[in-house]
Specification:
The chain is mostly helical and 239 residues long. It is built from 15 helices and no strands. It has one domain.
Length: 239
């Protein structure tokens, strides 16, 4: 069963609890199959994957609504970054629609995600990456979206430096030094160490091992490509 079958199957919401569980339960209605409930409770991998997926959908939908409206390009960006089979699109869309009704309460979703992944900063950064992509999909990160992103970042425990580095990574016109969190005056050997560390921490295999479903791998690959491109540009500037 792919991650979407688990998320929209009904039992997931009942097993998870909290605001994310309530959202999943609302989508599934009363169609809860208690026979599969133990498999969610006893499998940490399943549990993390479901919380990651449902949390990303909820926060992304609310991110898109942060400026008071949702544009078609924001929805298309989400579907481009996340692999959703055709037969699951309608159910995922229902989850998106329920989540985006208001921006109120998004901090509760973020807190539930943080409580599960607080020791895995790479996963939390990946969620922030997805939110940034939704925010900038219409060409600019609006003030309301910036506030939303900063608030979620604060809940996730990121400091100002980390938030600004994430912001730099997702700028329309990005600075390669800001992307890697280095200075132009830094020695290339130090920059190389930082680049290798970022590649390691954002590698899709690592993220999947920490709870990111494989359906989100395209977004992870895009970030690796951005990091590598920044390093290649810096090497040229340093030559």
């Amino acid at each position: 069963m792919n991650i979407w079958g688990k998320v929209i199957g009904g039992a997931a919401g009942f097993a998870i609890g909290g605001p994310i569980g309530a959202l999943l339960g609302a989508v599934a209605g009363h169609a809860i199959d208690t026979k599969v409930l133990p498999s969610y409770k006893n499998s940490e991998d399943n549990y993390k994957s479901i919380v990651f997926t449902a949390g990303v959908i909820a926060l992304s939908a609310k991110m898109a609504k942060a400026d008071g409206k949702v544009s078609q390009i924001e929805i298309l960006t989400f579907r481009k970054l996340v692999n959703i089979p055709k037969n699951n699109i309608s159910q995922v869309s229902k989850l998106w629609e329920l989540a985006k009704e208001t921006t109120d309460g998004y901090e509760l979703y973020a807190k539930q995600i943080y409580s599960l992944f607080k020791s895995q900063h790479s996963i939390l950064e990946k969620i922030m990456d997805l939110l940034f992509e939704i925010a900038k999909s219409d060409g600019i990160i609006k003030p309301e979206e910036h506030v939303y992103l900063k608030n979620v970042s604060d809940v996730f425990g990121f400091n100002e430096k980390t938030f600004n580095q994430l912001l730099s990574l997702h700028k329309i016109e990005s600075n390669p030094f800001e992307i890697l969190g280095v200075k132009m005056s830094d020695d290339i050997s130090e920059i190389r160490k930082k680049w290798k560390k970022m590649v390691k921490n954002n590698h899709p295999d690592l993220l999947i091992g920490q709870g990111m479903p494989i359906e989100f791998i395209e977004s992870a690959n895009q970030k690796i490509a951005t990091i590598n491109s920044a390093f290649e540009e810096i090497k040229k500037l340093k030559d």
